[in-house]
């Protein structure tokens, strides 16, 4: 499949250690290598968010660009994909939980309410971003009991700590929701259709 799409094309790199993003690209038939950017996302989020100038959607795009550009500077000529997600809820931004107790508290906060998930992706080459895009989705959790949340976390395991909101929609996390408005791929962490279109326009894959 990759020879059909990428024969003779520049290398493609995913600047992320996300297993879900990797699986989405693989399923789309792309051949790529993985090279995490090595940035301290927690510090970057704090620095960007503390200014109060950027909204959640902009923060996601700034971080996606930074990840793509950081790796792109190390591998000239390659096309590098960076991505980020920001969860906005009640006037604040929720980060990935540090531990299972933090995950429990986040789910209790989100229970029975709606939140917005901003998913951003950027494409960089030779150290600069050539394209960036973000999409917003609204997700409404059903009313969850503390007992159900405890059972869910026990069943899902510490994998939930890699996701903002402590849920993974592609797995058991779908059990937490009553309504979802938005693109499925974007909710998983990668606005895939706009990304594929950009890769075709930039000549990174066959049109």
Structure, explained:
The chain is of the alpha/beta class and 207 residues long. It has helices at 2-6, 19-27, 41-49, 56-72, 100-110, 146-156, 184-188, 192-201, and strands spanning 12-14, 33-34, 79-89, 92-94, 114-125, 128-141, 177-181. A hairpin with a 2-residue loop joins β3 (79-89) and β4 (92-94). The protein is 37% helix and 24% strand. Strands 1, 2, 3, 4, 5, 6 and 7 form a seven-stranded mixed beta sheet that branches. The mean pLDDT is 93. The chain has a single domain (2-201), classed as Maf protein (Alpha-Beta Complex), CATH 3.90.950.10.
Question: Could you give the topology of this structure?
Answer:
Layout: H1 2-6, E1 12-14, H2 19-27, E2 33-34, H3 41-49, H4 56-72, E3 79-89, E4 92-94, H5 100-110, E5 114-125, E6 128-141, H6 146-156, E7 177-181, H7 184-188, H8 192-201
Parallel strand pairs: 1-2, 1-3
Antiparallel strand pairs: 3-4, 3-5, 5-6, 6-7
Helix pairs in contact: 5-6
Key descriptive features of the protein:
Maf protein; 207 residues; 7-stranded mixed sheet; alpha/beta; globular; 24% strand
